Every structure is written in C-alpha cells, then in structure tokens.
Amino acid sequence: MFEVGGNTARLEFADGSALDGATVRVSLDVSVREYLDIERAASVLPLDDTPASELLDRWEALYRMFGERFLLGWDLTLEGEAIPSTAEGMLAIPFRYARAIFLAWKAALSSPLPNSLAVSANGATPEAGFVQMEAS
What we know:
7 strands
C-alpha cells in the first residue's frame, strides 16, 4: 500500500512583501471533492443571477473551510496579540493577508509533487516566496 496523506507545507513569503517574515503551515491533503468545492466557492463572477449576498456567503465559507481544515499553524499577531490559527482567526485577520495566504496555499496545491524539499509557488501571488514541503 502507498500512503498518500500527511502532506504539509510551510508557506514563506517574499522579502519586502506584506507578509515578509511570516510563516504559515498548511495541509496539502485536499481531496478532489474539496478542491472542486473550493473552486466553486471561489468563482465569484456573477455569471448568473446569483445574489451578491450569496457570493459573499460562499467566500466566508471558503475562508472558514480553509481555517478549519487546512490551516495548521502560523505566527501572526494583531495589535500584539497572537491570532489563533483557526477559522475564526482566518476571518479576523486583515483581508489582504488572508487573501495572500489563501492564494499561496492554492499555488502550493498546484505545484508539482517535489523531488526535493523546495517547490516554487508558481508566482500565482507576488506575496509568495516559496513553499517548503514538510516531511510526513
């Protein structure tokens, strides 16, 4: 049997970016079903008659799911207080940071499986420097 679970990464952010020096640990164990749910929720272009409030509810659910299921830890503070690495913590941080973290994680999901420990974040966000795969 070949175990495919237990994949984690440490997101590190580019020098000079808003998150320069921050470290965020995430799970990369996303099922196809979860990935499709994430993509559906992230599709906020109102191509149909979907009310704006429903689109915002999708985004809230998306950030909540990320915080509950995939965010393993971080070293973020707000006004000197540690922010818990939870769904509520994800919803409490300023949007620009939440978005940068989420996009760096999505880039890590799209990265090829590594032959070595360092994997490029594919440049999907200028905030992301690289993704450090962690041994399971």
